[in-house]
Design a protein that fits this description.
Domain YCII-related (chain A): 1-113
Number of strands of chain B: 0
Helix content of chain A: 25-40%
Protein name (chain A): YciI family protein
Oligomer: heterodimer
Order of helices and strands of chain B: HHHHHHHHHHHHHHHHHHHH
Structural class of chain B: mainly alpha
Family (chain A): Belongs to the YciI family.
InterPro entries (chain A): Dimeric_a/b-barrel, YCII
Pfam families (chain A): YCII (PF03795)
Number of helices of chain A: 3
Largest interface: A-B, 20 and 25 residues
Chain lengths: 122, 413
């Protein structure tokens, strides 16, 4: 079963990380990447730019309208995700707990099943 | 026959696993990689040579060639740590092997190879990937396509599975432990088969059909273990399930449930083959879980529609199946309740559903069944609410579409 592990980041939390915590976060993601690739559960990952770089294209009756800024103003933003192929939800949760973000108060990941995927080469 | 591709694809896929099994028996299952490469080399040689000089005994030719190729590779591969240990192996006669009585039959080879690939030490996903690659003869790209994951993901699973086999040791399975190693093989094939129905629903056609592969492997298993009623059961179950496929998928990948299927669209040949198989094995058999499920599919297959179905028999079979599986599988109970509704009416069945859902609140399809029973009982508002819950709960796009249709129909849309 495919699961998306969505990393929700609070930019203010990220700004206040110590040097050591940043190092831990970087190393932890590196280790997570290596481990899920090794186990054959890794499909893909993306990290996203800061929400200030977002544009929104909004549907309207005549011409779609383009505006600056994220879709929703909020404290936490989608920072990136891992797409995994695992045996079941229990395994997805087990892996989610190995993501370094969940050791830092104020950060969280969301684990959500995928119902359709087309990855081009799969 | 100058076109080398004119050699029947089915023949390659038949010969390759048997050749691999023979090499693994000789050189040890910890040499999986090298043996596989040697078989590939030999297949290429065959492609080049058979068009002009077809061999008298293709299997013997391939085995002898693959052995030579294995030796070439070991000799080339001077960095192999355990090369020394295999030098003695290299003294083994490489020429055509006499077909003596202690030569295991080809089907036997296939069975051992299946058992090796379904080694209990491997994770399920590794068992399935290795089986599809080594026994069914699919490429990594085809397996990746069937599962809709990148090729690298599958390649890694196969690599890791082979590594774990090496670590687990134990060599090539011996004929003595047929039954004890059969259970994981059956489970792997069943997972493969059900996955096919899950991944193909509402998705575009794939070039590798997991259901067809699972059936192919089950046939092979049936030839290798004709005594096993569970093997016969799993094959019959697959055939009878696959037979419904043309009637199960409507326009735009829409899912059509059993009670609405036009049964004239069922694949008659598959139905007949499945029923014939059941008639062969059921008398006097102590049925295991797969044979029981096949018998249930058989009862459906013998009926022309829902009304004329022998629900009494289906309910009885599900009750036995519940006992056989120790009541650990709530989906079986759910299916028994569907049969109960046909026999004892919707109210009794709805009460049983309530009981089941308090024990298994996350059970998939429970709300879909509940919605259906409520609708039949004329409790439209409650049915609508249950359909909405069922739509939220399902992870299957085609199933979701089907439930939305039902909900629309309910509200007169």
């Amino acid at each position: 079963m495919k699961y998306l592990i969505i990393m929700h980041v609070d930019p203010t939390v990220l700004e206040q990380l110590t040097e050591e915590q940043q190092q831990q976060l970087g190393d932890g993601h590196g280790a997570f990447l290596a481990a899920t690739k090794e186990s054959g559960e890794f499909i893909g990952t993306q990290a996203l730019a800061d929400p200030s770089r977002s544009k929104v294209v909004r549907g309207s009756a005549d011409q779609p309208e383009v505006t600056d800024g994220p879709f929703v103003e909020s404290k936490e933003f989608l920072g990136g995700f891992y797409l995994l192929d695992v045996a079941d939800e229990a395994r997805a949760l087990e892996l989610a707990q190995q993501i370094p973000d969940v050791r830092i108060p104020g950060l969280a990941v969301e684990v959500r099943p995928v119902v359709f995927a087309d990855l081009g080469d799969g | 026959m100058n076109d080398p591709t004119a050699v029947d694809e089915g023949l390659w896929r038949e010969l390759a696993p048997q050749t691999l099994a023979r090499l693994l028996r000789t050189y040890g299952s910890d040499q999986f990689d090298l043996c596989e490469d040697a078989v590939q080399d030999a297949l290429l040689d065959a492609h080049r040579q058979w068009a002009t000089e077809p061999p008298r005994d293709p299997q013997a030719w391939l085995t002898a060639t693959a052995r030579r190729r294995y030796v070439d590779r070991v000799r080339r591969d001077v960095r192999r740590r355990d090369r020394e240990g295999h030098v003695s192996m290299l003294q083994a006669p490489l020429d055509h092997e006499p077909a003596t009585s202690d030569q295991p039959a080809a089907t036997d080879d296939a069975l051992r190879l299946l058992q090796l690939c379904c080694h209990p030490e491997l994770p399920r996903s590794g068992q399935v990937a290795l089986t599809l690659r080594a026994v069914a003869g699919l490429t990594t790209a085809q397996i990746a396509n069937a599962y809709q994951v990148p090729e690298a993901t599958i390649a890694q699973r196969i690599t890791r599975a082979k590594r774990r086999l090496t670590e687990a040791g134990g060599g090539f399975p011996r004929p003595t432990d047929v039954d004890e190693r059969m259970a994981p093989v059956l489970d792997v094939l069943y997972v493969m088969f059900t996955e096919a129905h899950h991944t193909t629903s509402g998705a575009p056609a794939r070039d590798a059909d997991l259901a067809a592969e699972a059936i192919h492997l089950a046939r092979l298993l049936r030839r290798a273990a004709p005594e096993s009623t569970e093997v016969a059961g799993i094959l019959a179950l697959m055939l009878l399930t696959e037979a419904r496929h043309p009637a199960r998928v409507g326009s735009r990948g829409r899912l059509i449930p059993l009670d609405e299927q036009d049964r004239t669209n069922w694949d008659r040949n598959l139905v007949d083959e499945g029923l014939e198989l059941l008639d062969t094995v059921t008398p006097g058999a102590t049925p295991g879980a797969y044979l029981l499920q096949a018998c249930i599919a058989g009862v459906h297959a013998r009926a022309s529609d829902t009304e004329s179905t022998d629900w009494q028999e289906i309910h009885a079979l599900y009750t036995v199946l519940e006992h056989t599986t120790g009541g650990r599988n709530p989906t079986i109970t759910l299916n028994r309740i569907v049969a109960q509704a046909m026999l004892q009416g919707n109210d009794r069945a709805l009460a049983a559903l309530d009981e089941l859902s308090s024990a298994h609140p996350d059970l998939a399809r429970l709300d879909a069944v509940r919605a259906h029973l409520l609708e039949r009982a004329g409790r439209i508002d409650e049915a609508g609410a249950a359909y909405q819950r069922a739509i939220k709960a399902t992870l299957n796009v085609a199933e979701q579409r089907h439930l939305r249709d039902r909900l629309r129909r309910l509200s007169g849309g």
